[in-house]
Structures are given as structure tokens and as C-alpha cells.
Design a protein that fits this description.
Blueprint lengths: L1 H6 L3 E2 L4 E2 H10 L6 E7 L7 E3 L12 H12 L6 E6 L3 E2 L2 E2 L3 E5 L7 H13 L4 E2 L3 E4 L34 E8 L6 E6 L6 E9 L11 E3 L8 E9 L5 E6 L3 H15 L3 E2 L3 E3 L10 E4 L3 H10 L3 H15 L6 H14 L23 H13 L3 H6 L2 E2 L19 E8 L2 E9 L5 E9 L3 H18 L2
Parallel strand pairs: 7-9, 8-10, 9-17, 10-18, 13-15
Antiparallel strand pairs: 1-2, 3-4, 3-23, 5-8, 5-19, 6-7, 11-12, 11-16, 14-15, 20-21, 21-22, 22-23
């Protein structure tokens, strides 16, 4: 009984929260009804703190824990995504008189540097000139219908990109703005280079202080479907110096073509044709297979930096691998549900829409999230999973939290933020050497305005003292 008393020292029986956390919620005016919290020591049968553990709430990006854990266990940490290249005619003296087909299988990390490596591999196989088209085969995933701007009316922001079986560089381009040396113009460069993207530069350089939304740069896209032409307007202060932002442009097929053409020509190759969608026929055999980085490595980019479209790529892969091709959202959701049930975790409270948390409709209970974290800690791939989470005060989305306190480096967490939503889930390694699962979900009108972050900081600080 004495030990039990020590464990609950500092907790408010009336409010069900530790005193330090309850003080913060009272100061911020957050009612207990808006919160769902569980704190449970690894190896203990009962939670140390519970508050509304069975109430479903919007988890924002913390739901990535469930999607990525299912992938890690079901696919394995060494799983990799192939990207296959086919030729429709023999290569003679470095010349292909036919089309080059690239078939994607959903690689979530087919970034420009990886695409460049694939191009170099093709060059090493002796290919120099392609007298034909680049054919993009993205049939491994079902076509993802929908408006990328549906969530927040920002269709060209990189976090709203829709998944695709051949998604090069996450279909994101960095626009770099530089004052010209003569002070009379603003230069615009893209990363990666996309020769099929038409950029109209109407920016006006001005003297004076740097300020304003996007430093005064306004971007419009006349054709939101093709998104192959962008117009930049506004007054850009020369004092802003170098400025950069990321946006999503072009269709997946056109983006792949533009990136390939630029890299191919930079390597000394020639591509005479254009791009078209198609399917590699069953009679063809891959001329080259490029394999992605392993899943365990990719999960670090997904969870630490909360990448939405990478998570959606993983969900569709689960559907294709475990339910059947082509990969669909419904198939991916079914695969996650089956994973939970197989491991004794009821999937009934779980509502998934895309598995990334970029949703107004996804729901999870604190209990389900805690059960998933307990499962992750007990499985053989625990080190790989925990390594994918942000280290409090050090990296990822939690890099600026508690960075000056002694808790820094002693928690691995996934954070989540949307309008009216703030969430955290992960592990706290306490001073005593004990490890605790910590889950906090807040759905409240002020949640995103650092209100939730202050509550979760207090919760982690308290758990660290146990």
C-alpha cells in the first residue's frame, strides 16, 4: 500500500490528473471532458493515470503510429518497394527505338536523389538515347480520386499531395527566390528541375524591410488539374535575400517525366518523346529493378517529420500486399484492422480515412493507442519502431519541446496538430529507469494554439519524475 501511495503521489483524485497537469488545464480553461489521457508503466497491468480512456477522439497525426506499426510488423523492417523499368525494343549501340516504361509500386521515398541513382543505373546498362516516350505505369495502386485541396482549400501545399504508385519526390518542388545581383529582378529556380513546368515571373523587386505573408510572393495556378503553369506575382523586398517554399505541381505522370528528362539529359542521355500513361504488359520482363530504402529507415521520415503522403503510400501498400492488388484505401484499412484484431486489440473504436491523420473524420481512443504502443514495445521490431519517433527536445516535430529541461532526450513521441486538435503519444523514460506509455488526445477549440502543447509538456515532465 505504501508503494501504491508513492506511485500516485502528486495525483488529484478529484480530477483524475496529476496535480502538475491539472494546474495547467485549469489555467488554460480546458475541461476534462475535452481530454483523453493514459499513462501506464511498461509491465504494469493497470494504468497510473486514466482520463476518458474509451472516448473516441480525433488523433491528428498520432494515428500514424497505428498505420506504421501495422506496416512494420506485417511487412517487416527490411521490406522495400521496387520500381521496375521496361524497354519495348532491344537496346542497340546505346539506342532504344521504342518506349521506356517505368512501373511504380508505391515507393514512399522515391526522392530526387533516389531517382537520380536509378537514372545512373540505366546509363550504366548502356542506354544513351530513347527514341520514344516515357510511359508511366502507376497501376499498382487504384486511381486516387479526390480534390487535394478538400481538407483546407490549399491544393498545392505539399502536405496535401495525393498518393500514387509512382510518386517522384513526393510530387513536391522547392521554389527558390533570389535577388538578382543588379537589384533589378528576382530570380526563381526550382528543385528539382522540371523542364515541363512553365514559370511566369512577375515579381517586382523593391527596397525596404522584408516582411509579409510568403515575403510578398503570391503563386497562382491557372489550370489546377494539369498544374503545369505557375505565375508568381507580388513585391519582393531585396532585403529578404534567399527565400524558399515547397509546393505540389503537375500530375504524377508529368512530374515523373519532367524529373526524369532533366536528370537523363544532365547525365548525357537523350529523350526524344514525351510522357503517356500505360501498363507494362505481362510479356515484358524488367530491364532494371530499383529497390527503395528499407521500411524501417523510411519510417523515420514518416513519424519523426509526420509526412502525410508517405503514410498514405504505406496504407495503400498494406492493402495491395495483404488484401490484393491494386492497392486501395479500403484494402489498407482492412489490413490495419486485421493486424489489430490478430494482436488482441479491438479495432472497433478505430475510424480511419487515410491513415495519416490529415482528416476531420479519423477517430481513436486513448486506450487503443496505448494498447498499440504496448504491443510495439513488446514486439521484436521495437527498436526500429521507437527509433522512428521524435526525440523530445532534439529532432522531428518534437525538437522544440522541452529542449532546455532535463526531460530532453528522455521521451520518444509522435505529435499531432490540427484545427481544434492536439495530441501526443509515445514513451517516456523516467528518472527511475522505468518506461511509461503516455497518450494524450485533446479536442478543443483552442487546442492548436499551444494549449495542447503546454498540457503535454506538463504531462511528460510529470511522467519523467516517476
Amino acid at each position: 500500500m505504501f508503494l501504491l501511495g508513492l506511485l500516485f503521489a502528486g495525483a488529484s483524485a478529484a480530477e483524475g490528473l496529476p496535480d502538475a497537469v491539472a494546474k495547467v488545464t485549469r489555467r488554460l480553461g480546458v475541461p476534462e471532458s475535452a481530454l483523453g489521457i493514459i499513462v501506464r508503466e511498461i509491465g504494469s497491468e493497470t494504468p497510473l493515470v486514466t482520463l476518458n480512456p474509451d472516448t473516441p477522439r480525433n488523433p491528428a497525426s498520432t494515428v500514424k503510429i497505428i498505420t506504421t506499426l501495422a506496416a512494420l510488423e506485417e511487412l517487416g523492417p527490411t521490406y522495400s518497394w521496387p520500381t521496375e523499368v521496361f524497354i519495348t525494343a532491344p537496346v542497340r549501340d546505346g539506342v532504344l527505338d521504342g518506349d521506356l516504361i517505368i512501373k511504380g509500386y508505391g515507393d514512399p521515398y522515391l526522392m530526387t536523389e533516389e531517382f537520380w541513382k536509378m537514372v545512373q543505373a540505366l546509363r550504366r546498362q548502356g542506354l544513351q538515347t530513347i527514341n520514344g516516350d516515357l510511359v508511366v505505369d502507376n497501376s499498382y495502386f487504384a486511381v486516387q480520386e479526390g480534390d487535394p485541396g478538400e481538407f483546407d482549400n490549399r491544393p498545392f501545399h505539399a502536405y496535401n499531395v495525393l498518393p500514387d504508385a509512382l510518386l517522384v519526390n513526393l510530387k513536391a518542388v522547392y521554389f527558390h527566390f533570389y535577388p538578382a545581383s543588379d537589384g533589378k529582378s528576382v530570380l526563381i529556380k526550382t528543385e528539382p528541375e522540371l523542364p515541363n513546368l512553365n514559370i511566369e515571373n512577375r515579381l517586382i523587386p523593391i527596397a525596404g524591410p522584408c516582411g509579409g505573408y510568403q515575403h510578398g510572393v503570391a503563386m497562382t495556378v491557372p489550370d489546377p488539374v494539369l498544374a503545369d503553369r505557375v505565375i508568381f506575382e507580388g513585391r519582393y523586398a531585396m532585403s529578404c535575400g534567399h527565400y524558399v517554399f515547397a509546393r505540389s505541381v503537375l500530375t504524377p505522370e508529368a512530374f515523373a517525366y519532367g524529373a526524369f528528362k532533366a536528370l537523363w539529359e544532365q547525365s548525357g542521355g537523350v529523350l526524344t518523346g514525351t510522357v503517356k500513361a500505360g501498363v507494362a504488359g505481362p510479356e515484358l520482363r524488367p530491364w532494371l529493378t530499383w529497390n527503395s530504402r528499407p521500411l524501417a529507415e523510411i519510417l523515420r521520415y514518416v513519424n519523426k517529420f509526420s509526412n502525410n503522403v508517405m503514410t498514405r503510400q504505406i496504407l495503400l501498400t498494406l492493402g495491395a500486399e495483404l488484401v490484393g492488388e491494386p492497392g486501395t484505401v479500403d484494402g489498407g484499412i482492412q489490413a490495419v484492422q486485421q493486424y489489430l484484431e490478430k494482436n488482441g486489440i479491438s479495432s472497433a473504436p478505430l475510424v480511419l480515412e487515410n491513415g495519416s491523420g490529415l482528416s476531420r473524420n479519423e477517430r481513436v481512443t486513448p486506450q487503443l493507442m496505448a494498447d498499440a504502443l504496448l504491443r510495439a514495445n513488446a514486439n521484436p521490431f521495437m527498436p526500429e519502431f521507437i527509433a522512428s519517433l521524435s526525440i523530445i527536445g532534439m529532432d522531428g516535430t518534437a525538437r522544440n519541446r522541452l529542449k532546455r529541461g532535463e526531460e530532453k532526450g528522455h521521451a520518444h513521441v509522435k505529435t499531432g496538430t490540427l484545427d481544434n486538435v492536439s495530441a501526443i503519444a509515445g514513451y517516456v523514460d523516467a528518472k527511475s529507469g522505468r518506461r511509461f506509455v503516455v497518450v494524450g488526445l485533446l479536442n478543443h477549440s483552442e487546442a492548436q494554439y499551444r494549449t495542447g502543447e503546454q498540457i503535454w509538456n506538463a504531462l511528460i515532465q510529470w511522467a519523467f519524475t516517476l
